[in-house]
């Protein structure tokens, strides 16, 4: 992951140098790579704009990490689906190709086997995103409630915030 920072910069005779904010002519957003080398990403007229851009870059990096985690989960699901297909094939599907029906009880047996195989797949990235969306929904409800409540009732909003925080916590196995 790239580390970002903002610095005040001054240009003297075509050479740029980092300076304090008070002496800065402009502000530069830098990215530091894995080797610790800094590279200019963009220049801004003020620190606030540079820091806003830095936040966008950080959020982009966080989203990329989520995408990578989801892609890994999809690959795991793909591998598990191959196991499910093989289980179905071994439970009598190969005979249906020739027009021979499943033996009695084979469909139910295969269905339960498929559910067991798919239940073994862990999807922590998907689960975290789902919890985040649920928490945001609760927070939107709290904001809606508080903005329309005639009696300045913040109890519901406070409870909703607590519940949203709980939703963001990882679920324990077996829940």
From TrEMBL:
Keywords: Coiled coil. This is Ead/Ea22-like family protein. Residues 53-80 form a coiled coil.
């Amino acid at each position: 992951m790239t580390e970002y920072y903002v610095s005040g910069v001054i240009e003297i005779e075509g050479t740029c140098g980092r300076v304090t904010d008070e002496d800065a002519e402009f502000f530069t957003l830098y990215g530091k790579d894995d080797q610790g080398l800094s590279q200019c990403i963009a220049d801004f007229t003020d620190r606030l704009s540079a820091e806003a851009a830095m936040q966008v870059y950080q959020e982009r990096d966080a989203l990329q990490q989520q995408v990578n985690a989801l892609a890994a989960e999809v690959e795991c699901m793909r591998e598990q689906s191959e196991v499910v297909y093989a289980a179905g094939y071994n439970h009598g599907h190969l005979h249906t190709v020739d027009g021979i029906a499943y033996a009695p009880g084979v469909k139910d047996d295969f269905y339960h086997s498929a559910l067991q195989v798919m239940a073994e797949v862990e999807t922590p990235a998907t689960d975290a995103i789902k919890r985040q969306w649920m928490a945001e929904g609760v927070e939107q409800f709290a904001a809606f409630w508080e903005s329309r409540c005639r009696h300045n009732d913040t109890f519901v909003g406070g409870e909703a915030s607590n519940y949203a925080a709980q939703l963001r916590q990882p679920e324990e196995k077996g829940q």
